[in-house]
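Hey, resending since the last one bounced:
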Amino acid sequence: MPDRHGSNPWVGTPLMLSEPDLALDLPTRVLVRVSPPGCEVGLHDPFPLAAGCGLRQEQTQLLAGSANLVRSAIAEGVG
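The structure tokens again:
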């Protein structure tokens, strides 16, 4: 799997400055664990977080881009 991550301070910092509660959940964290059926990957969906903080649509789109990058990295690593 390529050495990369979804954290982008140019995206996350302005979001956290406008809505400080986002700092509780950003950057996006991913849990990977090995269990008897196989490998499990979990992460929090950022959209309820965005809705709860009252982000504007363009801010939510920035958060969506970061979430999609994380999901792509997971899919690539699992695949």
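The helical segments are 9-18, 46-53, 57-78.

Sorry for the duplicate.
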